[in-house]
Specification:
It comes from Colwellia marinimaniae. One of its GO terms (molecular function) is peptidase activity. Among the domains are: 46 residues, no CATH class; 40 residues, no CATH class; 103 residues, Tetrahydropterin Synthase, Chain A (2-Layer Sandwich), CATH 3.30.479.30; 65 residues, no CATH class. Helices cover 52% and strands 20% of the residues. It has ten helices and eleven strands. Strand 6 and strand 7 form a beta hairpin. The longest helix has 70 residues.
Length: 382
């Protein structure tokens, strides 16, 4: 017969456990026992009606426990997002939105917050030996700088955005180096290669929506293997010398050409000025001749005398010696006016007045007859 058949409850294993008719523990009894023990600790007396007090005490303790737990739970939900970050909110593992920097609150054990740095610029290097277009091996070192612009795509678009970016950088760098000559990589084509790597990298990461933006690409170094480094250094030095000589020649040409053009322009201007001067002088002579001609036709003798006097005045104005005809003698005397003026200036500087005798003035007299003097003047007038 089974132990749980009607009328045979003495065989219940819970009541007869240990042979003492014990049953399963009752929650009310457990709370009553706890209340009695607490009352005993604080000096209270247990009575027959103590079961009601135990029940009330258990309810109060449970309420206090719930209130304390609620307060702790509420305070545990506060968290802070830094100024440079943005928080990704996951509720039961599902994306529900983002939170801005500052103090925020979440449901503890329900929400999870992932902070993402949105302002810092990060570095990522890449280097290695690569094969160029002309089948040479070169070691290239390049570094990129990037920043997070979309926190959701950065976390959820791929498994690891930075690892994907690193692999994309290696791919773009090897593709560009493989389509370039070694001379361009080592010398003059570094900027073109940098721009090409930047464009190729952006093209590769665009379909993945990594939530990243490339800020800059730095071409740090490019060098051949150590076994052939000396030969390449010599070749690079020769190319640099070639470029330097070309720049010096261009600078010399730029310095000589303007001076030559200026000299040509000056000669042209002088020629034009000389031409203009000659033409104007000729026109002035013609105009003067046209004015003198009527006067000469009216009084030829007077006009000849006036022309003679004007000519002699012009001639003597350019000489430092004067010829004087002394009346009553047969001598023609020459006065060295330049020496007279020089001695006069010297005396003025010294503050003394000196008079030089005639023989010291180097006065040159030559005997001339009156007839010769008159013939000389007449020939000059003619």
């Amino acid at each position: 017969m089974a132990w749980n058949e009607p009328g045979n409850n003495d065989k219940d294993p819970w009541k007869n456990k240990g042979g003492k008719n014990q049953g399963p523990p009752d929650l009310d009894e457990l709370l009553n026992d706890l209340g009695k023990k607490v009352t005993g600790i604080f000096g209270g007396k247990t009575t027959k009606g103590g079961s009601g007090f135990g029940k009330n005490f258990s309810r109060i303790g449970l309420s206090i426990l719930l209130i304390v737990a609620s307060i702790v739970y509420a305070f545990s939900g506060f968290y802070t997002i830094k100024e440079a970050e943005k928080g990704i909110v996951l509720r039961f593992g599902q994306y529900t939105g983002t939170v801005e920097p500052g103090i925020n609150w979440k449901w503890t054990f329900i929400d999870r917050i992932i902070p993402v740095d949105m302002q810092s610029t990060r570095d990522m290097p890449s280097s290695g030996f690569m094969l160029t277009k002309d089948e040479n091996v070169v070691r290239v070192e390049m570094q990129i700088q990037y920043r997070v612009v979309d926190a959701r795509n950065y976390i959820f678009s791929v498994t690891n955005a930075e690892d994907s970016l690193n692999q994309s950088l290696d791919s773009a760098l090897r593709y560009v180096i493989g389509h370039a000559d070694m001379d361009d990589i080592l010398t003059s084509g570094r900027e073109d290669i940098r721009q090409a790597v930047w464009q190729e990298l952006e093209k590769i990461i665009a379909p993945y929506n990594l939530g990243l933006i490339i800020v800059d690409v730095n071409f740090k170094d490019a060098r051949p293997p150590n076994e052939v480094k000396d030969a390449f250094d010599d070749a690079i030095s020769a190319q640099e010398d070639e470029v330097r000589f070309l720049r010096e020649a261009e600078a010399y040409a730029r310095g000589i050409e303007p001076r030559a053009r200026g000299r040509v322009k000056r000669i042209e201007q002088e020629a034009i000025a000389y031409k203009t001067q000659i033409v104007l002088d000729a026109q002035g002579e013609v105009a003067r001749f046209e004015k003198i001609l009527p006067e000469y036709q009216a009084a030829p003798r007077v006009t000849r005398e006036r022309l003679y006097i004007a000519t002699m005045e012009k001639v003597y104005s350019n000489t430092s010696k004067v010829m004087i005809d002394v009346e009553g003698s047969n001598n023609m005397m020459y006065l060295p006016l330049d020496k007279i003026i020089q001695q006069q200036n010297t005396s003025n500087r010294s503050g003394k007045t000196t008079y030089a005798p005639v023989n010291e003035l180097n006065i040159n007299t030559s005997p001339l007859s009156s007839s010769n003097r008159s013939d000389r003047f007449s020939n000059g007038r003619n």
